[in-house]
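Let us practice reading a record.
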Amino acid sequence: MREQQSEIRKSNILFLIADDHRFDGIGAYGNPVVQTPVLDQLAAEGVLYQSIYTMGGLTAALCVPCRASLLTGTHVFQATASEKEVSLGQTEDASLWNLNPEQTFLPEVFRQDGYRTIGIGKWHNGKESFARSFADGAGIFFGGMGEHVGLPLHDYDPQGIYHQDTMYPSETFSSELFADKAIDFIQGHEAEEPFFLYVSFTAPHDPRTPPQAYLDRYPLADIPLPPNFMTEHPFDNGELSVRDELLASMPRTSEEIRQHLADYYSMITHLDDQIGRILAALRASPHSENTLIVYTADHGLALGQHGLLGKQNLYEHSIHIPLIMQGPGLPQGLQVSELGCQMDIYPTLCELTGNSIPDKVEGHSMVPNVLGERNERRASVFSVYKNMQRMVHDGRWKYIRYSQAGDAGSNRTQLFDLLNDPWEMSDVSEDPAMHAHIQRLEEELQAWQKDVQDPLLLQKNA
C-alpha cells in the first residue's frame, strides 16, 4: 500500500462537486434512464463508492452544513459557527453559516503544503473561509442558489473582501461558465507547484432550466416514476411546507413529477458534458498523468419519492451521495461497499497525497478501501435534520426517529431493512420481531448524540 501511495504523492487534485446530485442520478450507480457517459467512464476507470452519506444539518439550506462537514472533516455540530455555537432555533441566520474558524479547511491544508489552490463556482460558507482556502479563483458565487444565467459572480480578490459593487451577472449558463474557468486554469498552469482545483457547480439545483437540446433527450413518456412514488408523505415529518416542498403541487401528480425528473436528468446530462470538457482539457495537458480526480455532491433530494420533493428529510434519496475517485495509483473499476461519511473525504485526500491530517479532523481515511483492502472503519453512519429528525444506519438496518417540533411533526420512528427494501417502502418498526433492532439502534443513536453534543439531546436532558 505504501508503494502505491508514494506513486500519487503530491499529485494535483481536481475536485468536482455538484449541488443536489443524489447517488442514483448517475448511470454507474444503476440508473438506466439518466445519461452520464463521462461520469460512468470515470467510475469505470477509477473507484466508485456505493455507501457514502451526508450528516445533514440544523438548517433547511442543507448545502451549508453538508459542505462544511466536507471542508472541515468534522461532524455537523462542529463544522460551522451556527452548528457549534447557537441554539436549534437560530440556524437560518445566514451570517452564522461560515466555516468554524477553529478548523483547518480542506483546500487550506493543501495551500499550506505548497499547492496552488483555486476556487471556482459556488461557495456557501462565508467569504473569510474562501480567502483562507484559495490563492486564486474565478467565477466565484457566494450564495446558495440563483438563476443559471445571470448568477451574481465575483472575480478573485487577493484581499479577500469581495465588495458588493464588484459583483457582476454571468452571461453563460453556470455549468458551462464554471467549466470554462476550470479549462482556462488547466491550460494555463505551467508552474511546477501542484494544484488543488475546486470546481463547485450550482447544477442540478433548481431552478432546473436546462438548455432545450438536453431537455429534448428526456421525453416524459420515457421517464419512469420511482417505485416509492407517493402522492403525499404518509405522516407529518415536521417540514412539509418548507420552500423545496412547495415547488410542486400537493398532492403530487405523476405527470408533474415526471416533468421534474426530466428537468433534473437534463441538468445532470448537461453537467456531465461540461465535466467531459474539463477532463478533455486535462487529458490534453501535461498534468493528465498526475492528477487525482474526485466527483461528489453535497446531498441529494426526493423529487417525488415518499411524496416529497426536497432534501429536508433523512431518506436515502436525500442523504446518500455519489463519490467517484480516479487517478494515478488508484485501482480501476473498483466498487467499494463499506459505509463512509462525507467528512471522510478530507482525510482520504490528505493520505493519498502524503499530507498530514490535522488533529481536529474527525473523519476516517478511506485509503484502505480505495486501494482495495477491506477495512470497515465505520460500523454505522448518522444524520440529522433540524430538531425534528435523527437517523442511524448500520449497513443494513436504518432507523429514523422523528421528534415533534412545536405544533408540527410527529413523535414516531421508522425502521427499514435496506438489504431487502432499498427504496424504503416497508416500515417494519411496528413489527414486534423488530424490537431488538430498534432498541439496539436507539441506544447507538443516543450514544452518538451524546458523543457529538447534539443540541437536541442536550435540550431534551435540560
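A brief commentary: The first strand starts at residue 12 and ends at 18.
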